[in-house]
Design a protein that fits this description.
Elements: E1 5-9, H1 16-26, E2 30-32, E3 35-37, E4 51-53, H2 56-64, E5 68-74, E6 77-82, H3 83-91, E7 95-99, H4 102-111, E8 116-121, H5 125-135, H6 140-154, E9 162-165, H7 169-184, H8 191-199
Parallel strand pairs: 1-7, 1-8, 2-7, 3-4, 8-9
Antiparallel strand pairs: 3-6, 5-6
The protein binds guanosine-5'-monophosphate (5GP).
């Protein structure tokens, strides 16, 4: 049985990073696709864990080698999802989370229609602004850019299968976990297992 591709998008400051970290701790058989980016590394980030941090030339080379399932320019930097990262997890039978922006989500949905797309929505613009400001990771200019872009991003919610409103962490983690587990129970995802069970029904002697 192949794992599910789970796309998770939200505007910057929507809290998806925190929710995903919790999900990876509590849900079995799930992996995370580490993206490649040209963005500057932030304090506390680890190369190869949070992202593969590369120069623009290295990123362009990777595009040339066709290494990405999707890539996009987001808030002035490039980000891309590596084919290798995703395939390795899926072949192990694990679900794999792609934490990508709405442009990347649209590309993956087109290429892989069986993927599951979840949008994390903050409870309000005020909360988003407060979270992003408190995170204190962006320059004033970049913070403003991310807030401006959030309008177009939240308006993409219609292209997602599920919306999780991230007001408080615990209920939002539970919602996300419920979606992931429910998706694993979809009939079409269990055809081989179901067939094995049906084949055991030898009722000819009864
Ligand atoms: P940040 O700079 O805050 O880590 O990420 C900025 C935005 O880029 C977020 O919306 C994040 O989800 C998105 N992003 C991260 N990795 C990828 C990727 O591989 N592809 C795309 N399209 N977006 C990504």
């Amino acid at each position: 049985m192949k794992g599910n591709l789970i796309i998770i998008s939200s505007p910057s400051g929507g809290g998806k990073g925190t929710l995903i970290r919790e999900i990876l701790k509590i849900v079995p058989n799930i992996g995370y696709s580490v993206s490649m980016t040209t963005r500057q590394i932030r304090d506390g980030e680890v190369d190869g864990k949070d992202y593969f941090f590369v120069t623009k030339d290295e990123f362009l080379d990777a595009i040339g080698r066709d290494e990405f399932i999707e890539f996009a320019e987001v808030h002035g930097n490039f980000y891309g999802t590596s084919v290798k990262q995703v395939e390795a997890e899926i072949l192990k039978g694990n679900d794999v989370i792609l934490e990508i922006d709405v442009q990347g989500a649209a590309i993956v949905r087109k290429k892989m229609p069986a993927s599951v797309a979840i949008f994390i929505l903050p409870p309000s613009f005020e909360v988003l602004k407060a979270r992003l400001t408190a995170r204190n990771t962006e320059t004033a200019e970049n913070l403003a850019l991310r807030l401006r872009n959030s309008y177009d991003e939240v308006n993409q919610f219609e292209h997602f299968d599920y919306v999780v409103i991230n007001n408080e962490i615990e209920p939002a983690v539970n919602d996300l976990k419920s979606v992931i587990f429910a998706e694993r129970l979809k009939r079409d995802r269990q055809t081989d297992t179901i067939q094995g069970i049906l084949d055991s029904f030898d009722v000819s002697k009864f």
